[in-house]
Amino acid sequence: MSRISELFGVCTTTDAIVDWPALVSSQYCPYLRRKCLKNRKSQPDVAIGTCTVRHGANKRDVIICPFRLLERKRVFTDCLHLLTLNEPGNDLHLLSEISIPGGNVDYVLVAARNGKVKDFVGIEFQTLDTTGTVWPERQRFLQRVGLSVLASETESRKTFGMNWKMTAKTILVQLHHKVQTFESIHKHFVLVVQDHLLSYMRREFSFDHLNTARIGDPMHIHAYGLVSSGIDYRLELAERLSTDVAGIARCLGRQASPNMELEQIIELLEVRLSTDTLLDPLTPGGATGL
Q1: Strand partners, 34
Q2: Which has the higher per-residue pLDDT, 278 or 179?
Q3: Of 35, 140, 228, 281, which has the fewest CB atoms closer than 10 Å, so is most exposed?
Q4: Packing angle of the helix pair 260-272, 164-184 (nearest 10 deg)
Q5: What is residue 51's three-state secondary structure?
Q6: DSSP secondary structure string, 91-127?
Q7: pLDDT digits (tens, 9 = 90+) for 22-56
Q8: Residue 2 · residue 144 · CB < 8 Å
Q9: Are 33 and 26 in contact (CB under 8 A)?
């Protein structure tokens, strides 16, 4: 069985008939309703198209593309109850990439009337970051369904893994900043994740103090399961939690300190250290590999 669960929004084990050559040629993402934005670095015109992969001994289906969470716009309708000032007759708007103090917010769900904002909810997506490359596994799947691919790509031993720790820690640090803004203006902020990521965060961070979702809390976590029908996968809301800024700080434990940003930067820098980045005093410009 391929480690690719979904390619361009289509289940790789579907019972339905799929024209894989046409699908790969179009590079169409059904969630964005346009060309997939997940491109190869070495071939910017080629979309990778991997939404979900199978990972670990249990072969869990893990979402690795945040746009996969746009299915049916379900995650947005599940936030409607947090528009506590919304009234019948208002229009609903969905805005993306909004800059606020503390950073950018992926989406903002807005209730408005006559062009005037009545209420809004900030919504952030977080899916798993991968290490390595999924490309050889993708190419091996395409070869099995009849597409012509380069032998060098299918025979490559390069593989991929899940960057659980960095993904979880990075989003918690970002939340600590963003939720401060929303709490100070008495608005709600929602983090949308897959249930597998929430389970990891529970194990590795302090989550026991989080509440079963209370509408009075500013920070909400909506966790979704990916359910297979045999034909496709569907997102289903699995769990809702809530807390406040102080609660997010407790999740981070020792990282909830004045040095939180410094520790995050140090960890990011350490990942990049290698012999190629060593400063070579014998090289007239400074460092090798620059």
Answers
A1: 29
A2: 179
A3: 281
A4: 150
A5: strand
A6: EEEEEEEEEETTEEEEEEEEEEETTEEEEEEEEEE--
A7: 999 999 999 999 999 999 999 999 999 999 999 98
A8: yes
A9: no
